[in-house]
Amino acid sequence: MSSLTKIKICGLSRLEDIQAVNEYLPDYVGFVFASSKRQVSVAKAQDLKNHLSEKIAAVGVFVNEELCRIKEIYDRGIIDLVQLHGDESAEYMDNLKKLIDAPLIKAIRIEGRQSLAAVEDCAADFILVDSSYGSAYGGSGHTFDWSLLPSPLGKRFFLAGGINLDNVNQAVALSAYCLDVSSGVETNGFKDPAKISNIIEQVRGLA
């Protein structure tokens, strides 16, 4: 089962990052369009996507974004999936699905067992469970209490929040559809090709 776990490297912002993922081939990469230290402009994301291997799917990460802007970025071929990491409602997602034909990932911040009710009600194609850390919508680099997740969760889910080489074995054991990694493969705030290689190798090599 674990050998089927997919991996996403999120927050790419440089051509050096693209070169690294093209060599090691994660299943997904993420371009962050929301306010963040990893935020990229549309023009930058277009350039990165132009150099990205066709074997890798690009995810656009948005927080409470205007629908027309997401549609513009999708129509330009910059992203293949949309990750909604804010307070987007079911109505918002329904309207977005009418505009674009892309899988939707909805992030749910886990504060306690009560947070899991949103998992059952979510109409997105995937959910992403992430830590809740202050007012941040994500990207904190902190884990949450993984024991809160029921097994099975009942939906295909991305697991995010503080995944790194030290805890990736435990993360794989949770049977997530995909592990979403960002700060865990960085050194001094930049993506580290050696860490990207190591974590992908570890995920795919686990028996």
Per-chain topology:
Layout: E1 6-10, H1 15-24, E2 28-32, H2 42-51, E3 57-62, H3 67-75, E4 81-84, H4 90-99, E5 104-110, H5 117-121, E6 126-131, E7 157-160, H6 168-172, E8 178-181, E9 186-187, E10 190-191, H7 193-205
Parallel strand pairs: 1-2, 1-8, 2-3, 3-4, 4-5, 5-6, 6-7, 7-8
Antiparallel strand pairs: 9-10
Helix pairs in contact: 1-7, 3-4
Q: What descriptive keywords fit this protein?
A:
single chain; 207 residues; alpha/beta; TIM Barrel; eight-stranded parallel barrel; two-stranded antiparallel ribbon; 7 helices; 10 strands; 30% helix; 22% strand; globular
Describe this structure as you would to a colleague:
This protein has 207 residues and is of the alpha/beta class. It has seven helices and ten strands. It has helices at 15-24, 42-51, 67-75, 90-99, 117-121, 168-172, 193-205, and strands at residues 6-10, 28-32, 57-62, 81-84, 104-110, 126-131, 157-160, 178-181, 186-187, 190-191. Helix 1 (15-24) packs parallel to helix 7 (193-205) and helix 3 runs parallel beside helix 4. The longest helix has 13 residues, at 193-205. The model has no long low-confidence stretch (mean pLDDT 90).
